[in-house]
Amino acid sequence: xxxxxxxxxxxxxxxxxxxxxxxxxxxxxxxxxxxxxxxxxxxxxxxxxxxxxxxxxxxxxxxxxxxxxxxxxxxxxxxxxxxxxxxxxxxxxxxxxxxxxxxxxxxxxxxxxxxxxxxxxxxxxxxxxxxxxxxxxxxxxxxxxxxxxxxxxxxxxxxxxxxxxxxxxxxxxxxxxxxxxxxxxxxxxxxxxxxxxxxxxxxxxxxxxxxxxxxxxxxxxxxxxxxxxxxxxxxxxxxxxxxxxxxxxxxxxxxxxxxxxxxxxxxxxxxxxxxxxxxxxxxxxxxxxxxxxxxxxxxxxxxxxxxxxxxxxxxxxxxxxxxxxxxxxxxxxxxxxxxxxxxxxxxxxxxxxxxxxxxxxxxxxxxxxxxxxxxxxxxxxxxxxxxxxxxxxxxxxxxxxxxxxxxxxxxxxxxxxxxxxxxxxxxxxxxxxxxxxxxxxxxxxxxxxxxxxxxxx
Length: 457
Ligand SMILES: Nc1nc2c(ncn2[C@@H]2O[C@H](COP(=O)(O)OP(=O)(O)OP(=O)(O)O)[C@@H](O)[C@H]2O)c(=O)[nH]1
Ligand SMILES: [Mg+2]
Fold this sequence. Notes:
By secondary structure, this protein is α/β, with parallel strands linked by helices. It has three domains: 3-85, Four Helix Bundle (Hemerythrin (Met), subunit A); 101-293, 3-Layer(aba) Sandwich (Rossmann fold); 305-446, 434 Repressor (Amino-terminal Domain) (Orthogonal Bundle), CATH 1.10.260.30. Helices cover 60% and strands 9% of the residues. It has an eight-stranded mixed β-sheet with strand order 3-2-4-1-5-6-7-8, sandwiched between helices. Helix 10 links the parallel strand 6 (242-246) and strand 7. The radius of gyration is 25 Å and the shape is flat. Bound molecules: guanosine-5'-triphosphate and magnesium ion.
């Protein structure tokens, strides 16, 4: 999401950067381009107009000719306004004093409700240490409850449903959660092709009976402004608490994300970025503004690492790196841990200061496949000590992994190079220590949060 917008902003700001002073004409020109960029990102017209006028007002207040860094001033103002239209502060999710905390998901057909229900349950479990129950209240499609059961199993979360009617299922689901002592209840509901009175009446009745603490609308980012119109209609009936934006991975423009809060008055709470359970993140307006302006999103990257990377293993890996004892086996472990964090192309956008060419480079997760296959085809001894890999071993590995000896060679060369760098870094005073310290403090933090999770259960 936002790739093209990031490029457009990048172009505007690089022209301003390094300028000693900015004339009024420079600012006008920049604002005109920002306006165009937002419109091309499919942002709601009224939102664009307000955005540009607020940026202009703030820039008038700043004497840019006096400022030492006028370009940066403009960036700051745009950043703050972006954060505002994305929702300002991150929505803090709280818990009912009398559990369970009830979450209702509503939305159009195919928007991603059922997938999101399972992802949200998994998020509550993994990140918050909660013990959720899923409720399948979509009885329109015979397969809908089965789909939720399959996804629930993947997430390790129980699913309640029965073939009666949505209102009864929701009510019994709530009773079941109380009986089982579950602290979060997530209710999946039926969707329809277009907004119709039946749909609205049904979710309204489900909502009335379970009185959710959170009513979230699931919308498909790829449908752009239509999604925003949908949100307005649902908000009218249901008084929403927030929006969950799905299929962000397929939406390069980001128009829905940038318009929803201003148009509907309700923030985006989560985004879904792929088909896998872990492709789901809490939405932070400030971090998103950073990302749009090409400043990266280190915090989300760290959180993903904390949720998916085993801190114990990471510590061992760092220690081995420093001692020059990092083997191909460790390399394979690390690669598999990184893969758990989601598609590589999604991670790259979070790294700050990356040149545009790299940020937009097509990163193919498939590239990791042959590397894994090559390492898998090695004997444990070869993984520990690649220097024993001679011509015949090389051929065996290439055949076993379905690659060529050239590919095997290139992996071995790169690995040797990497070991060299690592030994150099470990030899540098200070640096090795810093890496180690960071690894240990990260580990401690994770352990602490695990403890918290256990207490929560
Ligand atoms: N790429 C991608 N696909 C997604 C995402 N979220 C959901 N999908 C896919 O979108 C399709 C529809 O998702 P569902 O969860 O079944 O949608 P739903 O709203 O429950 O649909 P109905 O119950 O029929 O109304 C499925 O194929 C999902 O795998 C996402 O964030 N990214
Ligand atoms: Mg569904």
